[in-house]
Amino acid sequence: MDLFQGDILTYHADPEEPARESAYSFFPDGILAVDDGRIVYCGKKENVPFSTENHPIHDYSGQLIMAGFVDTHIHYPQIGMIASYGEQLLEWLQRYAFPEEMKFADRAYAAMMAREFTNELFRNGTTTALVFSTVHPGSADALFEEAMKREMCLLTGKILMDRNAPEPLTDTPESAYHESRKLIEKWHGKGRLRYAVTPRFAITSSREQLEAAGRLLKEFPDVYLQTHLSENPREITSVAELFPESGGYLDVYDRYGLAGPKSVFAHCVHLTDDEFRVMKERDAAIACCPCSNLFLGSGLFDFEKAFSHGIRTGLGTDVGGGNSFSVLMNLNEAYKVAQLRGQQLNPIRAFYLATLGGARALSLEQEIGTLNPGNYADFIILNPRTTPLMKLRMKQATTLTDTLFTLMMMGDDRCVTGTWVNGKRVKQPAS
Ligand code: GUN
Ligand code: ZN
């Protein structure tokens, strides 16, 4: 058994109101106990229900201990071209993303990038991610293999894309169906891995292919669906032209049975009120991607609308459309996006979004996203005094809210003192 001492924060529910203290527990100088990959205790030091004598305490006093971050939308094949200059979504895909994704036909390249990718997740304190691979089934195999080795909870799928893309990156409705099916049978539910059927977005799938995706979801009802939705104005116009029979962007997916409780739609920046209502009716989830929406000039996510409709919402870094793996930096941008809309993103709620909110968006809250006993020991330690300026700022932080706000506005991967997955340390000091 391993014991960790520090300021422990764990959520039980969405702190819709900042004052709703029942939504989370905070144990200053508390104890987290981990045994055989699972959390066995989380609470006050004086209430530990077993003798701690034979177990050394890892002392992180003054630092925060919380569940690992959950990234609900990210592209592992785009890490090589992250931070590519000057374009918005549709041109950016053609000029930067597609050429890089072609390289993933090579299994060795995919395996190397999968390794770099998981390392970077852990360096940033992310312990679970819902990930786009490329159209090549081998790219999903490479990432699943790496995640299996790292004992992490990870979800991915091969992209489905049969039009409006370079020929080497396209499949067909038939090959998309058969290749996805094979991957589902091979990986879904193996260890901590899950499969997500992954039509890239409406522009790059024919009706026949969306129908094939719907068939897969019917045949494997607990498999996930991930795609992009309503990210960029020119994208939305193009979807309307390609699907004149549809009643809007979400309806394109909904007609084929792709909107359900296991569906995660990335972006949702320009949803109409009707679409928010349908999202709620279908119990579909949103991956909100602030760094990406600013970097690609896509628009400002409406937090209040998403929250007021009660839609399960998580954070997505959307690397490489997003320019950072850091969930802290994404919270930083999320706060500013809310400001530009005249809204506030309270830090207590922000860290909920990054942990339990993400886990709920992925229907995985019984396993991850909290420090509840019985959950996987996927957790992080964050140092709010990482830089000289943060140290100075923290002298004036007297509340949990202010400490969290300092972390989200000034923090990045350097603040992640350590990351543990399945009870094992996967980020060492100063890595
Ligand atoms: N829409 C379709 N493909 C992509 C992608 O790779 N990144 C982002 N941000 N949006 C997309
Ligand atoms: Zn994306």
What is the CA–CA distance across the termini? Answer: 25 Å
User: What percent of the residues sit in helical stretches (DSSP H or I)?
Assistant: 25-40%
Give a quick account of the main beta sheet: strands, pairing sense, barrel closure: 9 strands, parallel
Name given to the CATH architecture of the largest domain: Alpha-Beta Barrel
CATH topology of the largest domain: TIM Barrel
| Proportion in β-strands | 15-25%
**Which runs of at least 5 residues are low in confidence (pLDDT < 50)?**
none
Q: What ligands does this structure carry? A: guanine, zinc ion
Give the CATH H-level superfamily of the largest domain: Metal-dependent hydrolases
* Main structural class: alpha/beta
Taken from the alpha-carbon principal axes, the silhouette is: globular
State the domain count.
2
CATH C-level label of the largest domain: Alpha Beta
**How many whole angstroms does the radius of gyration measure?**
21 Å
Q: How many helices? A: 14
What can you tell me about this protein's structure?
This protein is α/β, with parallel strands linked by helices. The chain has 2 domains: 2-67 and 370-427, Roll (Urease, subunit C, domain 1); 69-345, Metal-dependent hydrolases (TIM Barrel, Alpha-Beta Barrel), CATH 3.20.20.140. The chain is 36% helix and 23% strand. The protein contains 14 helices and 16 strands. The chain has helices at residues 89-102, 107-123, 137-149, 173-187, 207-219, 233-242, 249-254, 273-282, 290-295, 303-308, 327-340, 347-361, 388-394, 400-410, and strands spanning 2-11, 24-35, 38-43, 57-67, 69-75, 126-132, 153-157, 159-160, 193-199, 224-229, 263-267, 285-288, 313-315, 379-382, 416-421, 424-427. Strands 5, 6, 7, 8, 9, 10, 11, 12 and 13 form a 9-stranded parallel β-sheet that branches. It has a 7-stranded mixed β-sheet with strand order 3-2-1-4-14-15-16. The longest helix is centred in the N-terminal third of the chain and has 17 residues, at 107-123. The radius of gyration is 21 Å and the shape is globular. The two termini are 25 Å apart. The model has no long low-confidence stretch (mean pLDDT 97). The site of guanine has 11 residues, from helix 1.
